Amino acid sequence: MLEIRGLEAGYGPAIVLRGVDLSVPAGRLVAVLGANGAGKTTLNMAISGLVKPRAGSITFDGRRIDGLAPPAIAEAGLVHVPEGRKIFPNLSVRENLDLGAYRRARGNKARNLERVFATFPRLKERVRQMAGTLSGGEQQMLAIGRGMMAEPRLLILDEPSLGLSPLLVEEMFALIRRLHADGLAIMLVEQNVAQSLEVADDAHVLENGAFALSGTAADVRADPHLQRAYLGL
Ligand code: ATP
């Protein structure tokens, strides 16, 4: 579904990504793991059209998307839920969700809204509340709910567990598991290596802008380097 080949990207003279290859097949949950500064955000921004690749290709359903503008990429069904819960704090929960309904999904807004409320009953209870007054966990739910309003075919989750308490992190991973069980393809970008490997089908470990390790989540978890460097074993 998503195919990245030989991707190079950076900022000005600084090269951050050096030859990244990545596949996310339909219905699969692929984790991209890495420490601070490894290049995870840059990879996401390149996929979403916010950073222009210098080399390589990104195709989605066989169509080149590198070089397209971000709205066109979202319109194709590749929906990015950014880190840091970038919701609109001065708009209500409902208004934030409405903004997620892109052109393609606009006709199904009522149905999609029901789906989001079924997944996140807490958002339904708070439709009129200003988003900025939601708890951290609720804001993260809202960010994912807004992504779901766009009818994603592939959902990119950027560090969804960042800044959540341990209990909410558990809830977040349970939710990711549920979205995946419903058949959604997910690219999960995370620093939380242990829990991501539990939910993922495949995993890639980004170090200094290139994948140091790629394989099934089980293979990656069994790797001695990963266990030493990321799991402290
Ligand atoms: P984190 O988990 O800390 O967000 P990350 O894996 O997402 O890290 P990136 O944000 O992709 O890493 O950053 C990779 C490298 O690119 C870092 O060295 C960072 O300083 C650099 N970088 C990021 N954004 C810019 C920018 N706008 N201009 C110049 N360099 C940047």
Automatic annotation (TrEMBL):
Keywords: Amino-acid transport, ATP-binding, Nucleotide-binding, Transport. The keyword Ribonucleoprotein does not apply. Gene3D superfamilies: P-loop containing nucleotide triphosphate hydrolases. One of its GO terms (biological process) is L-amino acid transport. Residues 2-233 form the ABC transporter domain. Signal peptide: none annotated. GO terms for molecular function: ATP binding; ATP hydrolysis activity; branched-chain amino acid transmembrane transporter activity. InterPro entries: AAA+_ATPase (IPR003593), ABC_transporter-like_ATP-bd (IPR003439), ABC_transporter-like_CS (IPR017871), BCAA_Transport_ATP-bd_LivF (IPR052156), P-loop_NTPase (IPR027417). It comes from the Bacteria. It holds the Pfam family ABC_tran. Belongs to the ABC transporter superfamily. This is ABC transporter ATP-binding protein.
